[in-house]
Amino acid sequence: MFMPRSGLETLKPYSVEEVDWPIKLDANERSTDLPPAVKAKVIENLRALPFNRYPDISALSLKTVIADGFGLTAANVLIGNGSSEILEALCFAFGGAGRSIVYPTPSFSMYGIYVKLADSQPVPVELNADYTLDADKLLTAANQAAASIILLCNPNNPTGTIIPPEQIEYIVANTKSLVVVDEAYHEFYGKSSVDLLGKYTNVAIARTFSKAYGLAAARVGYLLAPEEIAQTIGKVLLPYNVNALTLATAKTVFAMRQEFAASLAENSSERERMTAALSAVSGLTVYPSQTNFLLVKSDNAAALAARLSARGIGVRDFSTAPGLAGCIRIGVGTPAENNAVLEAVTA
Ligand SMILES: *Cc1c(COP(=O)(O)O)cnc(C)c1O
Fold first, then answer.
1. Ligand 1 residue neighbourhood (C-beta within 6 Å)
2. pLDDT tens digit string along 190-227?
3. Which residue has a Cα nearest atom 2 of ligand 1?
4. Which of 16, 81, 83 maximizes ligand 1 atoms within 8 Å of its Cβ, making it the mutation to test the pocket?
5. Structural domains in the chain, sorted by start
6. Which ligand 1 atom is the nearest neighbour of the CA of 87?
7. How far is residue 109's CA from residue 103's CA, in Å, rounded to a whole number?
8. Which of 85, 91, 223, 326 could form a disulfide with 81 if both were Cys (CB 3.0 to 4.6 A apart)?
9. What is the distance between the alpha carbons of residues 29 and 209, in angstroms, rounded to a whole number?
């Protein structure tokens, strides 16, 4: 008789509420489509693409453009069907039965799922009450578990808070685990741990095109890692894992990434405006964010979510998640969308 693989019974199907919100601030996407000049170039390049051919098997063309942007070589780059695929592959390649993977909590909920899919032991380490990280506590947990991987999300989703790069270097320098820094929100923050790649052999950096670069529809992300690590993870990725349309699109967007500067500046000023305005509302606490979303804690999260949804504003309710009691994550949208949030909250 056939049965699901052991371990799968503990996994719930990943479900997010699929509602067509008029104002969609629930998934940390870019709030508008690509800058028009970028979209025009993407379409021009797609028009020239031979749809009958398999993609470039090792995605070498995109890897090379990305590697050049970081002063690395193509052998240091992996391309995934979203950075999700690469993070999962990394757990498959360096995790496995009997291995432990350490990550702070609360953080990206998918980490626990990748760890379980890889048959590994999840070792979540609680963040401090203000969502800062206690590096020594994390290192102790990693040492005790002889962890094969430490996953860090910087800036952190869903809290929006950061781990100072010096603290990440301290962790990398004081562990034998592979430290993976998920920099999905890097472009909103500006600081990175990429420089550690030149100094340490136990570090890798994951990035995505889904957030600041507005390509959530295309599903593409990448990993920067020492050559041997990239090669090992490459063994668990299927050939042609990323389709040719996506590869061509990401290549255009990466080459034109300067075109996103104005939106990043607007995100930053809108985020500060929203932080100040929401902090002034009694009963609300806003955590300092270096991303395109705000984590807001409310005395009455259910009422806050209801006020927003009544006005067609979709946000992500984390109020029943561990370590996030009363918290709702609200994306920073366009100025008009943000005004609608303020109206809903203060009405
Ligand atoms: C959105 C997100 C990702 C990745 O998204 P992909 O669309 O799979 O590239 C990875 N990590 C975090 C923390 C995210 O929020």
1. 28, 82-84, 108, 153, 157, 182, 184, 208, 210-211, 221
2. 999 999 999 999 999 999 999 999 999 999 999 999 99
3. 184
4. 83
5. 8-34+260-346 (3.90.1150.10), 36-255 (3.40.640.10)
6. 10
7. 10
8. 85
9. 10
